[in-house]
């Protein structure tokens, strides 16, 4: 891992590797604002994307490619009947949903074959609108956050019972679960043993390729196993892929906060399994925002993108594959 000053982003190595990122159209769903942000119009709903991202790393990939291709999240399944019956009931309350183009469609449009050209699929977490259609990616290694396999098998009751998860969703022989924070793992492109380490304001990060180009950020709160990516795209230029750290960009800017609502049993809950942890994770991410402490030197530039940011999608159509972020 590159040298890091306290509360700063890691400095570039002498021969630093950079990655290229493209957004992927991966379906849309409709969310009632009152469940996600404070001071919401109780009747307002918004149809928002569930974006995935193609991250290309300059290392040899399969089939003689000059890049290792990683897809972060898979969005919405194109066939709703492939979800568990209990989840189909939930999805009926998120209408309209849009299933095409899905992640595979978007990759093919840009000239990549999901079955042969994607080396890694990493899921930020395994909620229905992020798991897509894994069977499209027959040649990929899947990477998920710690605790994901247990979650798929047992759920996280009471709010996320096991009936909504498919325990056979991931190919077990091609799935790697990241270790719990504090434990060691092996960097993807080397035999280097590494463990979760503090990175800037983040308590735990893994240098995924071992070269300072992509850091997996442990991002607790939303769902067990939830992870984000911090990607170096150029000298002092970064992209932070925030998954479901929050569902509305205004939470990151401080205009809104995470909503609480009646859980049906006389208690308040949010869309996160641990609201306090989710707020802490958002707080760490805010340090990357304009005016945040990590950018106080005016050198680094970080763009934070969350999966359901419809405003970002509308303003950045040219940055979807084959365009780049």
Automatic annotation (TrEMBL):
Recorded superkingdom: Eukaryota
GO MF terms, alphabetically ordered: hydrolase activity; metal ion binding
Cofactor(s) listed: Zn(2+)
Keyword line: Hydrolase, Metal-binding, Zinc
The keyword Zinc is assigned to this record: yes
CDD domains: metallo-hydrolase-like_MBL-fold
InterPro entries assigned to the protein according to its UniProt record, in alphabetical order: MBL_superfamily_lactonases, RibonucZ/Hydroxyglut_hydro
Family, as annotated: Belongs to the metallo-beta-lactamase superfamily.
Protein name: Metallo-beta-lactamase domain-containing protein
Organism of origin: Cyphellophora attinorum
């Amino acid at each position: 891992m590159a040298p890091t000053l306290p509360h700063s982003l890691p400095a570039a190595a002498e021969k630093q590797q950079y990655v290229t990122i493209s957004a992927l159209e991966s379906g849309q769903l409709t969310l009632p604002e009152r469940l996600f942000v404070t001071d919401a119009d109780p009747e307002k709903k918004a149809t928002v994307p569930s974006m995935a991202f193609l991250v290309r790393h300059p290392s040899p990939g399969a089939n003689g490619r000059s890049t290792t291709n990683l897809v972060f999240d898979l969005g919405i399944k194109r066939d709703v009947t492939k979800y568990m019956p209990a989840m189909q009931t939930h999805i009926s309350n998120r209408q309209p949903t849009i299933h095409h183009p899905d992640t595979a469609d978007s990759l093919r449009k840009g000239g990549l074959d999901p079955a042969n050209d994607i080396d890694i699929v990493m899921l930020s977490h395994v909620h229905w609108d992020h798991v897509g259609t894994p069977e499209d990616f027959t040649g990929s290694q899947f990477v998920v956050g710690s605790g994901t396999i247990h979650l798929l098998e047992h759920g996280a009751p009471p709010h996320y019972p096991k009936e909504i998860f498919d325990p056979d969703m991931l190919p077990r022989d091609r799935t790697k679960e990241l270790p719990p924070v504090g434990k060691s793992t092996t960097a993807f492109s080397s035999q280097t043993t590494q463990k979760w380490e503090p990175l800037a304001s983040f308590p735990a990060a893994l240098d995924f390729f071992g070269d300072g180009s992509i850091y997996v950020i442990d991002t607790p709160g939303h769902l067990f196993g939830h992870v984000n990516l911090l990607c170096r795209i150029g000298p002092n230029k970064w992209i932070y892929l925030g998954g479901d750290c929050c569902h509305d960009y205004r939470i990151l800017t401080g205009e809104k906060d995470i909503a609480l609502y009646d859980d049906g049993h006389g208690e308040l809950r949010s869309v996160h399994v641990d609201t306090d942890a989710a707020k802490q994770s958002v707080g760490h991410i805010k340090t990357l925002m304009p005016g945040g402490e990590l950018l106080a030197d005016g050198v680094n530039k970080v763009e934070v993108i969350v999966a359901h940011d419809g405003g970002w999608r509308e303003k950045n159509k040219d940055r979807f594959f084959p365009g780049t972020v």
